[in-house]
Amino acid sequence: VEAEHERSICQRYSNRIRSYGLCHLRDGAAAEDLVQQVLLVVLQALRAGRVKEVENLDTYVFGTCRNMVMDMRRGNARQRRIADAAATALPDGYELPWALADRSRLDGCLEKLEARARNVVLATFVDERDADDVGRSMGLSAGNVRVIRHRALAHLHECMEGGLQA
Amino acid sequence: MSACPSYETLVALWAGELHEVEAAAVDEHLFGCDACAAATERLAKVVGTLRETPPFVTSRPHRERLEAAGTRVAVTDVEPTLVTRVGR
Predict the structure, then answer these.
(1) Is residue B40 within 8 Å of residue B51, measured between CB atoms?
(2) Looking at residues A92-121, what average pLDDT do you find?
(3) How far apart are the CA of A62 and the nearest CA of chain B, in angstroms?
């Protein structure tokens, strides 16, 4: 029962931790390291009875993520040692569940965007430029860039999920 | 729990444009809200893929970074002139 409970916790949080890592570390391998490190700390805390309520667990996982990302940005070697131990501490039968999007489909969806929207998406998430910078180079206000950006991403989601022909 | 952030706010979070305090509040919400966690996981899939592998269509500065890192790049002139194609 305990192992099953731990697996359900891993399933609840693994994608959230990975999303947090991808968002703030901007590196897929580092995000996957973060998942293992955070899950290990959380399971250890549960086994020691330091976290009990589900609502507290949400806050505890988030706080652990935030602290570890700060440590990882500082290149703290302690995190690597925790990661090395994680493989033996996570529950048996638990597998990290994610996958990236279908690259060729995403390319097809990108090509379906208007050129201006495509440029905004690529400038933001590939070149990592902020809305002010993108706006200056494209003759748009930063506000316009933000509107084009979130509409373009919504369009990409719709396209990726089959709502539009890629 | 705080109110669900708008989709525009989630995109701004992923673009790194939220103030640290606002970003932390949104992040904390995402750990406790199933619907928002699912929305950000969909964003993670698209943005993560964009960041992980060279896109078929990319910008000139990104193309130049790929070339500097030794990636072979096939360039096709298309409109607008900022857009190029990357060969893998």
Answers:
(1) no
(2) 81
(3) 6
Q: State the ipTM, two decimals.
A: 0.79
3-state secondary structure of B56: coil
Question: Does residue B57 sit at the A interface (CB-CB below 8 Å)?
Answer: yes
> Quick one: three-class SS letters along chain A?
CHHHHHHHHHHHHHHHHHHHHHHHHCCHHHHHHHHHHHHHHHHHHHHCCCCCCHHHHHHHHHHHHHHHHHHHHCCCHHHHHHHHHHHHHCCCCCCCCCCCCCHHHHHHHHHHCCHHHHHHHHHHHCCCCCHHHHHHHHCCCHHHHHHHHHHHHHHHHHHHCCCCCC
All residues at 6 or more sequence positions from A31 whose CB lies less than 8 Å from its CB, including other chains: A17, A18, A20, A21, A22, A25, B48
* Per-residue pLDDT tens digits for B55-65: 556 677 777 87
- Distance to chain A for B20, nearest Cα, Å: 11
Q: Which helix H or strand E contains B19, and what residues bound it?
A: none
Please name the helix (run of DSSP H) or strand (run of DSSP E) that holds residue B34, with its range, or none: helix B34-52
Give the tokens for residue A139: 């003759």
Nearest to A16 among B31, B42, B53 (CB): B31
pLDDT at position A6, please?
Answer: 86
Q: How many residues does chain B have?
A: 88
What was the pLDDT predicted at B80?
53
